[in-house]
Amino acid sequence: MTKTAVSFFWFRRDLRLEDNIGFYHALKSKFPVIPLFIFDEAILDSLPEDDARVGFIHETLSKINAELKLTGSSLLVKKGKTQQVWQQLIEEFDIKEVFFNKDYEPYARERDESICQLLEAHQCITFSFKDQVIFEENEITKADGLPYTVYTPYKNKWLEKFHQEKPIREYSTSGLVSNLYTSNFSFPSLEQIGFVESPVKVKPYTLDTLDNYQETRDFPAVDATSYLSPHLRFGTVSVRKMVNFAVKTNAVFLSELIWREFFMQILYHFPKVVTQNFKSAYDGIQWRNNEEDFQRWCTGTTGYPMVDAGMRQLNETGYMHNRVRMVVASFLCKHLMIQWQWGEAYFAQKLLDYDLSANVGNWQWAAGTGCDAAPYFRVFNPDIQLKKFDEKGIYIRKWIPEFDLGYGKPMVEHAFARDRAIATYKAGIIK
């Protein structure tokens, strides 16, 4: 029996049909297109069965599938080891072309290279596209072609290039859906994938709060953030749409989007930062790494209200306000002298917007060991941060209901911890 020649579009970190560059080009293929998503066991096997991010992906895929059904098509969802899934697909379909959008993380790059080799060995042409960023790893470089490792000159070059090329095109796929493969694939339940629904949910993003973003973004009680980060992480919205909006609306918000790309290119060019200090001079620091102290930090029982409120918010909701993230990260690394990798791993378990490049970049920034990092002698005072950014205690009372009943003493005194941190860093930095 002759198989129908088809193309595939492989969804990964781009879970949307509209303004999806790889999907757009797939639909212009001369072969009918099968949309595909693979739940990768190499990633899933390390997650708890109620992981909220998996639930969000499943919910988003269900919506995509419903949209595709309106066109007479459907989403093919598989679960397994990626290489084995593609081997099965090669046997089942006459695959002529595979389209996907690039991913820049070390595991993804290695995976994609092996899948492309497999496909091309079976006479299948692969096409990859830039979709996750405005400018990828080698588009914003210094005059000598080397990557930037300091944010401000990177940002300036980014803006210069952007304004030379703007407006950034958005890709409509609405007129191309007739090239989708006619199908009615079975859509698996969350339980069939091996997971259960989580009480923690990803919030819809909003752009209504961004008019005064620069004035309100540091105050956690105001709740004036966009909640955009999980949507950028999983690609339920395109970065082009967000950047085009930010350019017209708010320069500070645009800077945050540029930070995202800065950390992505750092991870690409310096993959060691996943587990090692960007600045190797900091490798000699003698961390305390006390397990009991770490557990008090994790559970939000340090005695510092700003730290504890942030950790409780994270544990309960999967979110933490950005200002508070800086305070809790600084506290772990400098007050408790626990190395940043411990905090990074905990955030990776809990954050709904967990993104490897940003998480590693921001943790190393807080620890002082990363590129363009806060200097080691800057030690946030959690009490001063509380007075500056939650003076009336609205945020902390939301997450610490017992606060007015006589809150516990700080687990370590600030002045002592600050002096200890600075002395330990000084002694440990390799000249």
TrEMBL record:
Pfam families: DNA_photolyase, FAD_binding_7
Gene3D superfamilies on file: 1.25.40.80, DNA Cyclobutane Dipyrimidine Photolyase, subunit A, domain 3, HUPs
Cofactor binding notes: Binds 1 FAD per subunit.
PROSITE patterns found in the cross-reference section: DNA_PHOTOLYASES_1_1 (PS00394), DNA_PHOTOLYASES_1_2 (PS00691), PHR_CRY_ALPHA_BETA (PS51645)
A Gene Ontology BP annotation from the UniProt entry: nucleobase-containing compound metabolic process
Superkingdom to which the source organism belongs: Bacteria
Any one Gene Ontology molecular-function term assigned to this protein's record: FAD binding
InterPro entries assigned: Crypto/Photolyase_FAD-like_sf (IPR036134), Crypto/Photolyase_N_sf (IPR036155), Cryptochr/Photolyase_FAD-bd (IPR005101), Cryptochrome/DNA_photolyase_1 (IPR002081), DNA_photolyase_1_CS_C (IPR018394), DNA_photolyase_N (IPR006050), Rossmann-like_a/b/a_fold (IPR014729)
Annotated positions binding FAD: 213, 225-229, 253, 256-263, 353-355
Residues with site note (Electron transfer via tryptophanyl radical): W287, W340, W363
Span of domain Photolyase/cryptochrome alpha/beta: 5-134
Family designation: Belongs to the DNA photolyase family.
Name by which UniProt lists this protein: Deoxyribodipyrimidine photo-lyase
